[in-house]
Amino acid sequence: MNITIITVGKLKEKYLKDAIEEYSKRLNRYCKLDIIEIADEKTPDNASEKEEEAIKEKEGQAILNKIKDNMFVVAMDLCGKQLTSQEFSDYIHNLGVIGNSNVAFIIGGSLGISKSVLVRANYKLCFSKMTFPHQLFRVMLLEQIYRGFRIMKGEPYHK
């Protein structure tokens, strides 16, 4: 399976880079992983709703430019479906079974994901109704993908 994570923003913190590197290394056994970083647009202080939408759309166009036609797109969205780790594992497994072996997970920027990306998404997934920094969320997503593959293979990790 090919997993692509398309994410807005660059990691700056070493501890997050180290965690990404660790989970990327662990995932090598299970899938081909590619992480694509999209530059985040600067949001001016006191930006209007219209300005924020324009920023999201600009980031969204950059995301859409990285999505290939054959990719099954999972947008990380607060309005998406919440799954347990077991259900997430089953979901990834079932995608492969039905022939969707190129899966792209989309992590938006600090303002969220544009409407155009949400329209392109095949599935919307929500980890929690809480808000997380998108840089930290990248680690959380990788950990859950890793956990999902471990569950699939019946390997110890999940409790």
TrEMBL record:
Q: Which UniProt keywords apply?
A: Cytoplasm, Methyltransferase, rRNA processing, S-adenosyl-L-methionine, Transferase
Report the catalytic activity.
Answer: pseudouridine(1915) in 23S rRNA + S-adenosyl-L-methionine = N(3)-methylpseudouridine(1915) in 23S rRNA + S-adenosyl-L-homocysteine + H(+)
Q: Name one GO cellular component term.
A: cytoplasm
Q: Which residues are listed for S-adenosyl-L-methionine binding in this entry?
A: G108, F127, S128, K129, M130, T131, F132
Stored CDD domains: RlmH-like (cd18081)
Q: Per the UniProt record, which EC number(s) apply here?
A: 2.1.1.177
Q: Which GO terms describe its molecular function?
A: rRNA (pseudouridine-N3-)-methyltransferase activity
The signal peptide here is: none
Q: Which superkingdom heads the taxonomic lineage of this protein's source?
A: Bacteria
Give the enzyme class.
Answer: transferase
Localization of this protein: Cytoplasm
* Protein task: Specifically methylates the pseudouridine at position 1915 (m3Psi1915) in 23S rRNA.
Family to which the UniProt record says this protein belongs: Belongs to the RNA methyltransferase RlmH family.
Q: How does it assemble?
A: Homodimer.
The identity of this protein, by name, is Ribosomal RNA large subunit methyltransferase H
Whose protein is this, by species? Clostridium saccharobutylicum DSM 13864
Q: According to the entry, what is the taxonomic lineage of the organism?
A: Bacteria, Bacillati, Bacillota, Clostridia, Eubacteriales
